[in-house]
Design goal:
- The protein is mainly α.
- It has one domain (11-217).
- Helices cover 66% and strands 0% of the residues.
- The two termini are 34 Å apart.
Length: 222
């Protein structure tokens, strides 16, 4: 049986995807944990989430989904809003920290590639050059994808949490009543034409534009 037919990525790209996801998920969740901590909530710190150890952040099922269908999730960082002096403001910053960390990480790695090229560290070694370009290209792309994906205002994504902190308590209560339908909504968006209006423009139009903008700023062609 050819198991590669069940994967969302070609087998040759899997090692790059693994490295990129370990980095992207770890930094994303660490950012949530750290911002919650500086706003006064020690919950994530006590859970051992203030770490760059990816094993503390990965969700086995969410990681598997990345390889099977192209999207997934990490282990959510637990937040206790009662520790926040200003729960709404702190909640927005905590939610925003994850996606922002991913877009910063994407930008930084384009810069790292530029430094490598300027220093000539890959000169005369086409095999290593191909590996580095593939790896950094995947890191940049998946971090852009996570940035965009998590800004969708759908439960339980960060975009939804930001909206939740912006609306009135009465609206929050109504939103919470339907949160458990979030996964069903994702499936509908992913397997029906509705996703062509919501998901596809982000990943096929906005994502590549961000990718090429970053590359253009550093004069790099992936």
């Amino acid at each position: 049986m050819d198991f590669s037919s069940f994967l969302a990525y070609p087998l040759a790209e899997i090692p790059y995807v693994v490295v990129a996801l370990l980095l992207a998920f770890t930094v994303h969740e660490l950012a949530h944990a750290y911002v919650a901590y500086i706003f006064g909530d020690p919950t994530a710190k006590n859970d051992g989430r203030l770490t760059l150890n990816p094993l503390k952040h990965l969700d086995p099922v969410g990681t598997l989904f990345i390889f099977l269908v192209g999207f997934g999730w990490a282990k959510p960082v637990l937040v206790n809003r009662s520790y926040f002096r200003h729960p709404r403001t702190a909640g927005i910053f905590v939610s925003l920290a994850g996606p922002v960390s991913n877009i910063i990480l994407a930008f930084v790695f384009v810069g790292i590639l530029k430094i490598i090229l300027v220093l000539g560290l890959l000169a005369g070694n086409p095999i290593i050059e191909d590996i580095i370009f593939e790896l950094i290209g995947m890191i940049v792309w998946l971090n852009i994808v996570l940035f965009l994906f998590n800004l969708l205002p759908l439960p339980p994504l960060d975009g939804y949490r930001m909206v939740e902190n912006l609306v009135s308590p009465s609206v929050q209560e109504k939103m919470q009543q339907y949160e458990h339908y979030g996964f069903i909504l994702f499936v509908v968006l992913w397997i029906t034409p509705v996703g062509d209006w919501v998901i596809s423009p982000l990943f096929h139009q906005v994502g590549p534009k961000i990718y090429q903008t970053f590359a253009g700023l550093f004069g790099i062609s992936f």
